[in-house]
Specification:
The protein contains 7 helices and 8 strands. It is of the alpha+beta class. The protein has a single domain, classed as Aminopeptidase (3-Layer(aba) Sandwich), CATH 3.40.630.30. It has an 8-stranded mixed β-sheet with strand order 1-2-3-4-5-6-8-7, sandwiched between helices. Helix 2 packs across helix 4. It is globular and about 45 Å long. It starts with a helix and ends with a helix. InterPro entries: Acyl_CoA_acyltransferase, GNAT_dom, N-acetyltransferase. This is N-acetyltransferase domain-containing protein.
Length: 189
């Protein structure tokens, strides 16, 4: 029980994280319009989740997914404009000492190095605070730019799983990247 309580405490003590250009913070219903802007964009959602059809749907997802179980789930806010431009989460399995990072970014902010900046903060949280031994991330085989984010934060390609899931009714292949605690220590140095 102590280990489980510890990871909740770490998340409770780290609800807001800052990087040079970003604030990672809990989501609220006030983020609905910003989220709907990218969640209703088929180009942004193509490889990650079903495209939102209405602002109401976005509000319901914020309430049921992000607010109902907030630990490890962050809004990505641009420090300069205070606009919520994406989400990033660290899904932890404390018994195994592992986690998975997942993320989505408004396409108008792609190619600026923002997602690696946010993801590095979650690696720091996972390895330095939660003392995890391994963190993975997955991307659709047809979305190699997401794999570049993973490489930029020190992850290495580990496997490709064919016909792994359906997104938008299309069967897709996924690529898994990972990084261990010792690899993270070497990457930080």
């Amino acid at each position: 029980m102590e280990q489980v309580m510890n990871h909740y405490l770490v998340f409770a003590e780290n609800q807001v994280l800052e990087t040079e250009r970003l604030i990672l913070r809990p989501l609220s219903l006030a983020d609905a319009e910003d989220m709907y802007e990218y969640a209703s964009d088929e180009m942004t959602t193509e490889f990650v989740f079903p495209t939102h059809q209405t602002l109401q749907e976005t509000k319901e997802i914020i309430a049921s997914v992000f607010m109902a179980d907030p630990f490890g789930k962050f809004a990505i806010e641009d420090k300069e404009t205070h606009k919520m431009i994406g989400t990033i989460d660290l899904r932890v399995n404390m018994k195994a000492g592992t986690a998975e990072i997942g993320y989505t970014l408004n396409r108008h902010y792609w190619g600026k190095g923002l997602m690696p900046e946010a993801a590095k903060m979650l690696l720091m949280l996972g390895f330095d605070q939660l003392k995890l031994i391994r963190i993975i991330a997955v991307h659709d085989l047809k979305n190699p730019k997401s794999g570049r984010v993973m490489e930029k934060i020190g992850m290495t390609k580990e496997s490709t799983v064919y016909e792994a899931r359906k997104i938008h009714g299309v069967v897709s292949d996924i690529v898994t990247y990972g990084i261990t605690h010792s690899q993270w220590q070497a990457h930080k140095a």
